[in-house]
Design brief:
The structure is a homodimer of 457-residue chains. Chain A is 30% helix and 24% strand. Chain A is built from twelve helices and 23 strands. Chain A has a six-stranded mixed sheet. The first copy, chain A, has a four-stranded parallel sheet with strand order 11-10-9-15.
Chain lengths: 457, 457
Amino acid sequence: MTDTTPAGPRHRVVIIGSGFGGLFAAQRLAGADVDVTLVARTTHHLFQPLLYQVATGILSEGEIAPATREVLAHQANARVLLGEVTRLDLEARTVTHSAVGRVTVTPYDSLIVAAGAGQSYFGNDRFARHAPGMKSIDDALELRGRIFGSFELAELASTPAEIERLMTFVVVGAGPTGVEMAGQIAELAHRTLKRDFRRIDPASARVVLLDAASAVLPSFGERLGGRARARLEAIGVEVRLGATVVGVDSTGIDVERADGERERIEAVCKVWAAGVSASPLGAQLAEQSGAELDRAGRVQVLPDLTLPGHPEVFVVGDMMLRDRLPGVAQVAIQGARYAADQLMRRVAGQPPLPAFRYRDKGSMATISRFSAVVSIGRFQTSGFLAWLMWLGVHLVYIIGFKHRVTTLLHWVISFLGRGRAERVMTQQQVFARTAIQDLGEDFDPTLPRVPKDRPGP
Amino acid sequence: MTDTTPAGPRHRVVIIGSGFGGLFAAQRLAGADVDVTLVARTTHHLFQPLLYQVATGILSEGEIAPATREVLAHQANARVLLGEVTRLDLEARTVTHSAVGRVTVTPYDSLIVAAGAGQSYFGNDRFARHAPGMKSIDDALELRGRIFGSFELAELASTPAEIERLMTFVVVGAGPTGVEMAGQIAELAHRTLKRDFRRIDPASARVVLLDAASAVLPSFGERLGGRARARLEAIGVEVRLGATVVGVDSTGIDVERADGERERIEAVCKVWAAGVSASPLGAQLAEQSGAELDRAGRVQVLPDLTLPGHPEVFVVGDMMLRDRLPGVAQVAIQGARYAADQLMRRVAGQPPLPAFRYRDKGSMATISRFSAVVSIGRFQTSGFLAWLMWLGVHLVYIIGFKHRVTTLLHWVISFLGRGRAERVMTQQQVFARTAIQDLGEDFDPTLPRVPKDRPGP
């Protein structure tokens, strides 16, 4: 019998990020003879594909964001640290991260970087204040406050113009997130809120989906994109393609049409679902390793998902640039598992795996209840069957986490009934203190906002 | 047949507040020949007795805070307006309210004021920043962030002293809210988080329940109070009575004991559940009607819950001072129904009801799962039977609202399992930007907090 007790200290793996890439990499390393440290700037794993349901009041934040350390509680070789990574040092092999001012330097033997991507405003970061993105729980709760808040203020408004701009919702970006948001806002207005107001008629709300490109859901192909568009229009969404956003302010959005004409849409509530830009950690990796960065800040990796000259550093998920793979959950999950497997082989002294190959499991987007589009290789379908497939896939995923049963219940409520269980706006998030603040003279700026001396922001 | 069409415009009832008083008054007026306008500064009705479960991660905010306008959606004579009431004019019979700067003046024929109470720091409002109260959803989410955040930071801390102060939780006030919070924090630390951390042992967390008075749950009598105390101590809560808080700062709390000695407890996370002070609208009512105010700002009302000289103005709930009735849900509900009934009789030209009489339906408080205290008149019980009664009463109440089934599920998760489904901290609420910010030199103030240019606070 050989002694299997390791001679030296265990191989230290640091994982950055608690999204699909980070969490699945950590889980894949369960049982491996390594110490795993997952560093993330939120305490939760985010199931981003359902973020639009938190924004529109269907699900609670807890339902799509289980505590990362709870998911990993029984994995003895993994620890979780709250921290925003500020510096990577590929020479010293250390990660510097800080949480609420506490700075920690964590050394590694292998590193898996899965820090994801944020919203991109294509150089117009000033738009962010008026058109929040859809990348985090904070974004979703902010938008929830703005969406429901718009109807509240419309009920109080006095002029038709004011009511109109409060009841116009503009979603920028006709990819899956934008399509799902536009569809849900339309359902919310036309179905959920139908009987809730006395002066305004929520069913008359206008939902506009804008994109500079010429198609809805371009990644799904022309046929499915066309069907998605038709379905959106059937539920009352105004689809405007070839429309480039050139300005966003508190009361509206300016677009330039394909014919060069400019047009303004008066709308208080805007959602930005148009572009992503990889974590700024990508730039640090590129600088230190010589890897290339694309315009979205993604890092070009080698066929085994490592950095040139740094076989101990893997980059996976939305930060990774490889074979034009899209920034979707499956790419992150498969990349993370590959990186973990490769790393374990190396630690065990086994020969390396062949180059990473992505298996396309297809993609899907919901448009409204009972209606979705699904594309799996050559198989394409839309409508109710596609929606059932969407439901099935998400239920299977959700069962993977503990106590997500309430999610199913909330879906029953929303899809079969017309309710939304999670409509809370907090005072912290309330609409109030953002775009609406500067709505013009007919709004009194001396309102009692959240008291300044209160704990909180 | 007589013509029942009203000759003039309908009687206009304005209700201020969407808590138990406001909502139940509005519901009681369903079907009455009046126009009801409910003005409230939140868009939800808050089931305050379960706020501690939101703060400790058991329930989502939506589960205890249904949208007020959804609850009243089918009541055709009621409309709901978002607004903070800034001015009452009893002469002109108008209510001035503002939402996000939009000022609205709403006239009334009858007024029901049910604006509730906020936390009182007994003249030490500077404590609020370091020890949030337990009166609103914002409070509960803020505390959720601080409680879970404390453990996160303890996992990162380097010195034993730092770990100790991050893992000490002080709850001020041994009434029902304080007892329930202390019990839940103890269960969270000792049960839920048991396996979630690697460096700290959450089971070693210290939970201190302080009160200046000499008893736990004094309103439940000596015997039940004693049992509650014994149960709290059994689950590891340190009960300190006769301890007056004289100072609160970011890292601790200073108390003066009954013997005059001062003592400091190092604790980052503090909860204030010690006192209430009625809405400042009480002072306006007193000034304009000559009614008396007590020290907590409550308004002395006549036997029919109206103001002297103003039979058209009712005050109910936590703002009302009458027969030493406590600030509990049942007093608000019964007062609201009485006011609505009295008002309907007046409008219908019927003789008035006799003076308001409160029927004490008893009170209850949970201490931990499976353990509560219940006092109904002379009947008193504690332990599991009391807990079953608590569960029964809350289930019945909750069934009164649509889609609260998830609440039951979350309870199954928390009481039978050890999970907490709702542990999300948002970046907006994260601990980060409050008490923790000034923790001392070992914390770097140059941390990446929530970017200033982001939408939000």
